[in-house]
Amino acid sequence: MKKTRALALASIMALSLAACGGEGAGGATNETQSGNTTNSSENTSGEGKVVGVAMPEQTLQRWINDGNAVKEGLTELGYEVELQYGGNDIPTQQEQIDQMITKGVDVLIIASIDGASLSTQLDAAESAGIPVVAYDRLLTGNPNVDFYVTFDNGNVGVQQGTSLLQGLGILDADGNETGETGPFNVEFFAGSPDDNNAQFFFNGAISVLQPYLDSGTIVVKSGQTSFNQVATQGWDQARAQARMDDLVTANYRGSDKVHGILASNDALGRGAITSLQNSGYTLDDIPVVTGQDAEAASAKFIHEGWQYSTIFKDTRKLAAQSIVVAQDLLEGREPEANDTETYDNGEVVVPSYLLESDIVTKESLTSLLVDSGYYTQEQIESGSAG
Fold first, then answer.
1. Closest CA to 273 of 224, 313, 307
2. 171-180 tens-digit pLDDT
3. Where is this chain primarily localised (predicted)?
4. What is the extent of the structural domain holding 250?
């Protein structure tokens, strides 16, 4: 069975290459997107079954990639796909999932806008006998969640904190201390408070940075160090830019400079960078800025030197694993979990499959993003995966 599942996963990963590369980054709409019901004879295992896929929004390139990859992989296996994007609006996503349940989908894959906002829908799915797979973002406050597929989110934060320390020269490439004591002025930009993952990212990073905060090697001049102080509603780039404007005005006058920014994703990092560019920072004094998602626009920034790092969560792997899990549930098998302890959603500990991520810097940009087929060099240089 494990060999069969491994072969299936490899096959889905191969299919996802096209969906997550340049061609797969555009073309999706907010309308229902049904899978191709004309299937080859060797891909009929899903015949007559429908998978509902709810994605949060299309503002971030990564969610377009995810939606396309999941849809392509499921369609190739013979399933019909009901794919919807919620426009980052909770009532819209609730209505979309309600409609999928009413139409009688056979399984739901949900990347939520707010993990705590779908309890009514989860109860309805349970009543209808529809298994639910939480995709990348944990669904909370309800026991009716069958499985969770995500990356090791605590480790993502550890990688972000580590890359910040390496960029500042406090750690070397092997993670060893260099003896550099600073002090370095650093500011924090965490994710959305309604995204369960955001706290994992932030806590993971702080676990690495705390000793250097305690020693004074890192200084947060704004004094804003708690998650609630630095969280950014909706992971919104404009909000991050406006907050960076305020931080610069209040804390960094004259010769005082920002040396590092812990940004929990690429959009927040780009917002901070844009603010600093507007404040007169150049490539000679731009801070070490972290990120996450390896968005094309941020890959361009890394290539040019504006951003130091991003965390590459290969969404092809995430899509492929979610498809394997959905197929297991549809065929009455128990999905394979590699974590049954970490993700307590407030009602149950949800069995999970955690994937590994990679730190991308200018030195590893080509090997991780281009050589893997995720982007072309032209897409990185243009900052667009379209």
1. 307
2. 999 999 999 9
3. other
4. 153-312
